[in-house]
Amino acid sequence: MNLFIKPYVLFILLLIVLAVGGQRLAPNDPYQTHIDQRLLPPSAAFLFGTDELGRCMFSRLICSVRVSLGLAASILVICLVTGACIGMIAGYFGGLVDEMLMRVTDTIMALPSFIVAMVLIGTLGAGIGNMIFVFALTGWTRYARLTRSLVLSVKNANHVVTARLTGLGSVYILRRYILPAIARPLIVLGTLGMGMMILMTSSMSFLGLGITEPTPDWGAMMTNGTTYIRTAAHLAIFPGILICLTVLSFNLLGEALKKDNA
Amino acid sequence: MRKDPIVLDVRQLQVSFTTPEGPVRALAGVSFQVGKGEVFAIAGESGAGKSVICRAIVNRLEPGASVRGDVWFNSRPMLDLGKAALRDLYAKELTVLPQHATALNPLLTIGEHLSETLSAHLPKMKAKAVRDRSIHLLETFGLRDAGRIYRAYPYQLSGGMKQRVLIALAYCCDPVLVVADEPTKALDPVLKETMLETLLEIKSSRRASMVLVTHDLTVAHRLADHVGILYQGRFMEKGATRQVLEQSVHPYTRMLIRAMPENRLAPDLEDNVESSHGHSQDGCPFQNRCRWGRDDAPHPYAARKIDDNHTVWCINAESQQAFQDL
Question: Mind listing the domains of chain B with CATH numbers?
């Protein structure tokens, strides 16, 4: 199956281009206010209209891709790497190590992660660094669980047992024998998790606990828009559509990879 | 008697596993020695404990197994060695010849397999030297076009080629002892024949000892110097291959030989009841299948020495021998 002709893949590629290009691709300065051109509907000059300070919505949305997508992606990568390492150690070595790591995982999984994140952000203060820390703190558990079960299914495969009997070290076996064999399901779960991560970070910003003005972010822009939902609905609609399409695309990609994997 | 130095000395090895139905005794006191360059075959039916011996020799038994007895390899106590010491030993001195081509990692090329093992044990070797030696190894074990095979993935090779690669991997660091658990299992007759010839060739060209586990007496007969016939975790008959397989004394050995397809004789169905574990703990484990064992008195499990190179564990050994001589 050629993934590169699917609309959701093209959309994700477009998002990546926008994230890399950032402000350079925007037609107007996203921070430039035009106090005489507030809350304008979409027009030729301002493709998606302007917000309550007269800033170009289209440019702000383009710039927000880097912030929102970058934030979600960095949390996801940290979660995946941490989860994969902990899961591999627990699954491969087993015994007491496994028992201890998995009980920690269970404990964290039992906590309502979003509420924990809200409390921590409330204490530590908003900001990108704190957001990454708080979400990574609880997000790695699902990857650790999946990795552990995948490792258990391959660690007694004939070729892994043979590798142990040729005197290869554990770290080497984990890197060259176990990781390549379990990478695909992990990537699938990671892709599916990307949509969830975007929703979580956007929700946090929507509540005013994440990224704050003037930095453009999908969640923060939606909060902003709710105030004017009766007079200038485009302020909330466009970021909403962008979030929807992004989450949908990542979920569709995840599903496609899952089917490809099976 | 033996002239060669002893490489492997297994003394009174007992292994049992704990199961929900109670303990299962897999090995009930097995002893044998393997000299330098010698091939010792362990033959017997499924469940006799052949693979457990293999795993005990390389100290890879399940954590739950309780082990008694000693395994001395090159005057080192295998069962007491730590993980690091074992890792140092594997491949360099003691290797396992896997029985199936699934022992190759599908995601690594043949070259990567060989060079990772070589460089794990010879860390000072340069990459170029490792490569040359790997290709030379492949050529030595009868793989033509070794340069191409070096770059190939396991799925690109035929079954016979994979078998040769496995042999090359087992012998790549010049081991002292090779443990081969059913190396000819699940091979078609042609492959089996080439495999046997390769192993025979290695036997004559290298001074590596081998513990060969098999249920195929033909393989044992052609390859082994000494044979032990295992039944329910105990040796029934043990000694030089010719004596055990050509002048066998024990009724079980004879039954196995009669059951070979070459002899075109199926074993008596009556004799061929499923062997059951846990039965007679100290007596002869074969009694309930033995035609000499139909009396009520339990037969003891005791050794009878026929000569220096032939021992049989049967109380009727003398009369059996007389019977055979008639």
Answer: 6-93+179-272 (3.40.50.300), 101-174 (no CATH)
Identify the band that residue B1 occupies on the pLDDT scale cut at 50, 70 and 90: very low
| Token duo for residue B85 | 């010491």
Contact predicate B67/B25, CB 8 Å: no
B116/A176 touch (CB, cutoff 8 Å), yes or no: yes
Question: Which amino acid is residue A24, in one-letter code?
Answer: R
Torsions phi, psi for A132 (to 5 deg) = -60, -50
Q: Closest Cα of chain B to A48: distance in Å?
A: 50
Tokens representing B191? Answer: 């492959």
How many other CB atoms sit within 10 Å of the CB of residue A53?
Answer: 16
From the centroid of its chain, how far is CA A77? Answer: 8
Q: What is the pLDDT of residues A1-12, one digit of tens each?
A: 677 788 999 999
Buried b (16+ CB within 10 A) or exposed e, A156-192: ebebbebbbbbbbeeeebbebbbbebbeebbebbbbb
Interchain proximity A159–B121, CB inside 8 Å? no
* DSSP string of B190-243, one letter each residue: HHHHHHHHHHHHHHHHS--EEEEEES-HHHHHHH-SEEEEEETTEEEEEEEHHH
B29: region left, alpha or beta (phi > 0 left; psi from -120 to 50 alpha): left
Average pLDDT over residues A34-43: 86
Assembly ipTM: 0.79
- List domains and CATH numbers for chain A: 71-261 (1.10.3720.10)
CB contact under 8 A, B96 and A162: yes
A134, with CB counted inside 10 A (0-12, 13-18, 19+), is buried
Q: What angle do CA B35, B41, B42 make, to 5 degrees?
A: 120
- Token pair for residue B75? 């005057």
**For position A183, what pLDDT does the model report?**
92
A12 membership: H or E segment, kind and range: helix A7-21
Alpha-carbon dihedral sign for residues A139, A144, A147, A149: negative
Q: pLDDT, tens digit, for every residue of B189-231? A: 888 888 888 888 888 888 889 999 988 888 899 999 999 999 8
Contacts of A161 in chain B (CB under 8 A): 103
CB contact under 8 A, A165 and B60: yes
Radius of gyration of chain B (CA): 21
Helices (H) and strands (E) in chain A, counts: 11, 0
pTM for the full predicted model: 0.81
| Six token digits for residue B299 | 């037969």
